Amino acid sequence: xxxxxxxxxxxxxxxxxxxxxxxxxxxxxxxxxxxxxxxxxxxxxxxxxxxxxxxxxxxxxxxxxxxxxxxxxxxxxxxxxxxxxxxxxxxxxxxxxxxxxxxxxxxxxxxxxxxxxxxxxxxxxxxxxxxxxxxxxxxxxxxxxxxxxxxxxxxxxxxxxxxxxxxxxxxxxxxxxxxxxxxxxxxxxxxxxxxxxxxxxxxxxxxxxxxxxxxxxxxxxxxxxxxxxxxxxxxxxxxxxxxxxxxxxxxxxxxxxxxxxxxxxxxxxxxxxxxxxxxxxxxxxxxxx
Length: 289
Hints:
Oligomer: single chain
């Protein structure tokens, strides 16, 4: 049997834990909202890039096919090194492993040491592992630049013609699912759909820049937007997973506090009853004299 003081000490610890869990829950909710706004903002950027493609394709009837000669594939897996996000890394690692299959001279890049370790344990050692910063105080742009530099190097030295990114994507307000997107070559029909898309003004603008340079610039921006969107959606999913974990922890902590409070009251009542009985016994002993 525990003393009331010992139960009270455990109760105090549980209440402190509840305060920490509540703070982490609020932070996760704020981060989810922040990254959802970033995800919405990238739509405007993507619209500008697609308008660029529309102008380019409208002025040049030559068919620009991004499906180049056969080459190797590159796979980018977005994980997280942060804690309290459940099976976030397991889920995306399993999805990527199933798709990659370990065949061919593929280049694999892992973003996050934890997901890199899971891939390596399964027999696929990433050629590049980008360590996740403890705090994204500088935003995700520095990470994206590092990823794009590696992609450029791979395309020059490894004959990479196909790039696929794997990431966790929000499914609804409190869940996420593993997803993948082939960035290059572009999905069949995408450029044709852009070519046929209605232009909002009377005529499509013309350009004077070298067509090869312009097309290359548009493709680089397309890659950047695609990676940015995947990264932001991965961050929304990660913080959603953390929010769900904190909600479960908050519930368990509240239940534990209720149990300890009941136990403390019972122990305290027992102690008071015992003291009263001692006083009565002492009084009776005195009267007996």
